[in-house]
């Protein structure tokens, strides 16, 4: 599909008011998106596990205005309270997507949103938040255009979510989502995420992700700034090439379930992401001492136990510990005994691979 496919020509129905709620999950990238072009076009393709427990629930109550507004008309409530400081981000998002959802200025929107994870956990809510919001808007569009099919609904929700936050386009469906054009992946697109279209071994069907909350503070450098530092970055081209290669290498790994190969790619991606940050101008470090302590403990335990846990990192200090269902008991015991001590206030979140957003 092209950008033009997402610009509606005419709506077939009229709707005065309604309310819709979606719960959208977070996701964790295995091959990382880091670097982008204008309009949130990724500099390289990425792939992620959709999560289950970490999610944002958003409702929109929409009421048709008597006359089309000059600007967007909306109120925003976060966990039941008005949240003025989130409004500029939503305003920017609406301005970016207006062309694709021209009904926006015809309604007043009451947006109510909340997260399943603690507010200041250092877990990014932009992916799940923008995905939930995009899905609510698509529901309104579907009311106006009732012949819309389910595939188009999902693709366009992902397309809109991407314009809010790049990684959000991977939070619409589950359980393995790929975003960004890649030669070896049929149907891949820079515009939206797709369900990974090839064989996935059953070992990955119920993978676990225990998120260790190492540092719950505000990050020193936002992801948007980090992405932009990939412009004129000395290793940018090699990095973008490497992401393509790692995705190619993952195709047979997903099919075979060879976890030792999976681990090598996933951990390398995490460390390369942070190496890019350290090699940016200006340089920065988002890992904390406890991030490294945990990584070393994971390596030691993997060697001594023969289990297949591995780590990945987001743009922050928290560590995602990934492991298969059949090693759950042994790995979880290790996490409790050895790793939780490195978490801020001993906090962690037990999550696992999920199946995408749901209408509530
Ligand atoms: C990812 N991250 O693939 C990478 C890996 C973090 C580390 O995408 O500027 O919040 O809103 O497009 O998507 C985080 O960046 O950035 C991110 P914007 P986003 O998940």
Order of helices and strands: EEEEEEHEHHEEEHHHHEEHEE
Low-confidence stretches: none
What is the total domain count? 2
The strand count comes to 14
- What is the second-level CATH architecture of the largest domain? 2-Layer Sandwich
Question: Rg to the nearest angstrom?
Answer: 20 Å
- Distance between the first and last residues' Cα: 28 Å
Q: Please tally the helical runs, counting DSSP H or I stretches of 4 or more residues.
A: 8
Strand count, sense and closure of the main sheet?
Answer: 8 strands, mixed
Helix content: 25-40%
Task: Give the CATH class of the largest domain.
Answer: Alpha Beta
Give the structural class. Answer: alpha+beta
CATH fold call of the largest domain: Ribosomal Protein S5, domain 2
How would you state the average pLDDT, rounded? 96
Enumerate the distinct ligands: ligand 2P0
Broad shape: globular
Please report which band the strand proportion falls in: under 5%, 5-15%, 15-25%, 25-35%, 35-45% or over 45%: 15-25%
Q: Can you describe what's shown?
A:
With 360 residues, this protein is of the alpha+beta class. It has 2 domains: 3-198, Ribosomal Protein S5, domain 2; 207-352, GHMP kinase, C-terminal domain (Alpha-Beta Plaits, 2-Layer Sandwich), CATH 3.30.70.890. It contains 8 helices and 14 strands. Strand 5 and strand 6 (81-82) form a beta hairpin. It binds ligand 2P0.
